[in-house]
Design brief:
Blueprint (H helix, E strand, L loop, with lengths): L6 E7 L6 H6 L7 E6 L6 H8 L5 E5 L5 H15 L4 E4 L11 H9 L5 E5 L4 H4 L4 H18 L12 E4 H4 L13 H11 L4 E5 L13 H26 L4 H30 L5 H27 L6 H7 L1
Parallel strand pairs: 1-2, 1-4, 2-3, 5-7
Antiparallel strand pairs: 4-6, 5-6
Helix pairs in contact: 6-9, 8-9, 10-11
Amino acid sequence: MELDKKIAVVIPSYKVKKHILKVISEIGSEVQRIYVVDDLCPEGSGSFVKEKCKDERVKVIWHEANQGVGGAVMSGYRAAIEDEMEIIVKVDGDGQMDPSLIPHFIEPIVSGQADYTKGNRFFDLESVRSMPKMRLFGNAVLSFMTKMSSGYWDLFDPTNGYTAIHSDVAKHLPLDKISKRYFFETDILFRLNTLRAVVIDIPMEARYEDEVSNLKISKIVGEFLAKHFRNFGKRIFYNYYLRDMSLASFELPIGLLLILFGLSYGVSGWIESIQQGTPATAGKVMLSSLPLILGVQSLLAFIGYDIASMPKRPFHKIRNRK
């Protein structure tokens, strides 16, 4: 693919000494700069790359304290922006991501279709069979939570770290506020939605060999759930009350209140009927069920509006016109 863009690759480096040289060697000539971010790696992967790698495109960045994968990626973003790179790709150093796919990730950005692209390992159902079952289940749960908190309802596989972003978009992200640990992939989607950036999934296959993942789904589900609720609340406030108001701005709170009233009235009536040994009257049943039905309809209407209002105009093209 012929390119006139300056492409950079960011590789967060933590306990990947065994694989990182191979990853760098597979990065094609379309890339002008490679940033290896040593996140206080106990294996000294940054010094290892500096000593063993002869690729002139490589620049090693060292962290004095471990900041997590998100912090390492943000350091790479800052360096790429400072060097006036135009598209920034993030690839893990553990060998699970095929660097030959980089042209597929940057093509929608180059052609003006997207601001940000991310990998999706679930397009090919046959390849999904090779994925560990626990990881498969965890990704399904996290994907649903991400759809709600980020507003990108057509995306899947939120923890996939194979991404590409236009530098004009990265410049407008609050890099200091983005989560520095494993939540950063989903947190950045929330931040992108506040910019109304266009995000596209790119089909890919993951390569599972002898690498050891530092992400334990069972340990982060609770933490992720709390952060998803936080981001969902912020997104709703920003998009439906601060920046604009629409019918959906009323459908959500009314729907929630109706459901809350229907449930509380129904449960209290059910307890009362058990204690008195008498069946609930038709009026009480209707007074409980009708708010529930109307509340669910209001919530579904809100979700339908939210899905229809996903960003469609690439942020970086609008900025360039201005």
